[in-house]
Amino acid sequence: MCQAFKVSRSGYYAFLKRPLSKSAIRRKALLETVKKIFEDNHKIYGAPRITRSLPEEQKACLGTVAKLMRENGLRSKTVRKYKAAANSKHSLPVAENILNRDFTATKRNEKWVSDITYI
Question: How many domains in the chain?
């Protein structure tokens, strides 16, 4: 395996015995805090909100939090507001469908159509 990664045998064993660096320890602690905030907020918070929610002693930039979340598969669930598409249970008059989706015309200005879905 050492030949495949082009490292010396002694270097590999030194790597195994080496303690975690300060930055690795900080990232591990930050990950635990990010996971806790993420779980406490029903997996809805994304990286910007989690960054703002971090305690003062563990402040980190948005990029660091986003990278930690991405590496560990933490992805926020988006919640969309309910919006009724149409209300067909009304007693208002409804225009008759004269064209019945036949938009072919034999001469100009014979059939006029419009779209009012934006209203």
Answer: 1
pTM of the model: 0.60
Per-residue pLDDT of 61-104, as tens digits, reads 999 999 999 999 999 987 778 877 777 777 888 778 888 888 88
**Burial (0-12, 13-18, 19+ Cβ within 10 Å), 89:** exposed
98 within some domain: no
Write the pLDDT tens digit of every residue in 12-33.
999 999 999 999 999 999 999 9
